[in-house]
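Dear colleagues,

As part of the handover before I leave the project, I'm documenting each prediction I ran so the next person doesn't have to rerun anything. This entry is a single chain, and its sequence is reproduced below.
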Amino acid sequence: MLNPLRPFEETPAPASLTLPKPPSPAPVSHHSLEQSYRPICNLLLSLTHSRSLSKGLQLHAQIIKTSLNTIPLVSHQLINFYSKTQLPLQSCQVFEEAPKKSATTWSSVISSLAQNELPLLALEYFRRMIGDGFRPDDHIYPSATKASGNLCRFDVGQSIHCLAFKTGYVFDLFVGSSIVDMYGKCGLIRDARKVFDEMPERNVVSWSGMISGYAQLGEDEEALRLFKLALAENLDVNDFTFSSVVRVCGNSTLLELGKQIHGLCFKTCFDSSCFVGSSLVSLYSKCGVIEGAYKVFDEIPLKNLGMWNAMLIACAQHAHTDRTFALFKQMESVGIRPNFITFLCVLYACSHAGLVEKGRYYFELMKDYGIEPGAQHYASMVDLLGRAGKLQDAVSAIEKMPIKPTEYVWAALLTGCRLHGNTGLAAFVADKISELGDVSPGLHVLLSNAYAAAERWEEAAKARKMLRDKGIKKETGLSWVEDGNKVHTFVSGDRSHMKTKEIYQKLEELGEEMERAGYVADTSFVLKRVDGEEKNQAIRFHSERLAIAFGLITFPPERPIRVMKNLRVCGDCHTAIKFMSKCTGRVIIVRDNNRFHTFEEGKCTCGDYW
């Protein structure tokens, strides 16, 4: 039987007796700690590659329970995971909750923000990092310069460039390439080229940054020359490089060269890239080969938003209006969320087809997607109403704008006034334009043409004088045709071409046949104060007619004649080209500065509404 417990009695300890120290806990070895978090890091890396968000969230919860989130390497992997799953703000939360910040975690969070379109926040974290005493390295500098380039903040980019120079990273391959790309995006092509030329070694990023920079500034020849040099150096170009070069071909309407580069994309397996695909869609669309754009679009299995937008604007510009709306619905059905550019595309389609109610529907639909209409959307709506003759509704739309109307909004209204001969409202718009101060030369020309069309010659002369006083010349009307590897360019009344005699002879012969078919020149489109016969002569030899005549005497009958023009085709030329297509039996495709016109058998795809 157990004895009952006795009350505790304190007895003094003997003098010679020392109390034993409590045993200290066994130290956790570095090896055992590493064994606990290394598998977690490997698993996180695997989930990052597979973009498995749900499983990653579960693993994050387990990491918090086991307190492994205090280890910088685990925090780094978590930040990277949320970055790759496009949750940059979650990356920030992981970073802020980490008790210890390392250079790696700073690098991860800045990269996450820069890669996920939060450049301002990326630069704020970069500033904080420097304030906390951490020095940027070859991983952090590229993220900071990328953020500066995306914001077009060349002043911030230059400061980061100077810091890279002071810390000895300016000649690092990755840092130097990112600086080239940053200056290119900011339009400082000379600075970009200086850094590029001084680099001891170059990679695909530096080459692509230079090519894209030249393409962005419209220096297409230099962009193509650099691309040729890159290939000569056996550079392994990537989808971004191809995308930039294809975009150059599209902007310059170099169809044959674009086809060759498309073939190169196919050989290198980059033809299925969304970035290359969207550029190819634009290439074929801008060169008047809409069937090629459809083919590229249909062959790419995974399409991003940029590619959908490229196809939408292609359909809109080629007057495939029903296809535009069908694509919009298809895009929604596959879970692609439209952005502000998407709505600009469908509003453009509505405007050039005269679909007022449809345009109003899509304008209101923007709000359902949380998109606030911007100045460009309002300009599209004013353009839609103005072209449809609803000029007072257009004025009302401008008055209700929550933002100040831009010159593009007033230009859209002025176009409507010109189309419908409302000179009184045009004068009102002219007063509003004068209040804006400095505006683009094109707006002054539009204003002058509106006055000239109403035979208000003094006001027209005044608008042109304003251009002269500023030292600005009206853009010369050009039309060009591609034949093989050569582009033939014409201006109105041009007699410099090597086939001038044959071109004018063809126009004379065709003119007689067109008159027998019922064509009568409308000289009201000659906006000069000259007599009737001079007007008649001036309109007969507009640049697009010369280009078409060149195509008729050069290309085989089965080949469509594709003419590109930098200004809007005039009303009389539009009528004349319909007769040309009817009398010759040829398909004639004309791209002006607004849209495509496909003429066949005396009809145009625009339905005489443009």
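The chain has a mean pLDDT of 87. The two ends are 111 Å apart (CA to CA).

All the best with the project,
I.
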